[in-house]
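Chapter summary example.
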Amino acid sequence: MTAGDIPSPVTHPPTDAVPGPPARTGLVGMWTFLATDAMGFGGLFVAYGFLRARAPTWPDPRVHLALLPTAALTVALLASSFTVAEAARAAGGRARAAWLAATVVLAMAFVGGEAAEYARLCTGPSPVRFGELYGATFFVITGYHLLHVLAGVVWLFTAFRRVRPPALQVGALYWQFVDVAWMPIFTFFYLVPAR
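The structure predicted for these 195 residues follows.
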């Protein structure tokens, strides 16, 4: 047996890395998904604008909605864009885990705040009903966004399994889209005054 007959040793990927798609494929796929998802949000915003413009009256958001707590939730969501970007850029596993943990805390604060807002709107002194136009548009659009946040939270928890940095970049892109999608919701429902 000569040296050329000896098989080369088999190399295995590091045990702390979860295989994933190549970075370019993952990013292209995510951008494609986000483009179609943006159309979903866009359709909801167009429907909301049309219904609000056609309605004879529209409730004042100051009567029903909690502006200051929701503004704090908005800041938390925007801060989570920074923390998830830092997690995707982090070189070491420990730093990455710390940034992901911060993102999870901010995301869960947003989810908890939205749940409290829903509970208050359904049972408070002036409840918002799903069967009414204002309540239906509010709950459908914010609920659609909340489903996206919950999907992002599931991804964040799986990201603790030491996924590869390209997969973190793809997930961070999704999370930042979810954060950006909240801004028109917050603006249209909480800041635009009633007629």
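To summarize the output: The chain is about 75% helix and 0% strand.
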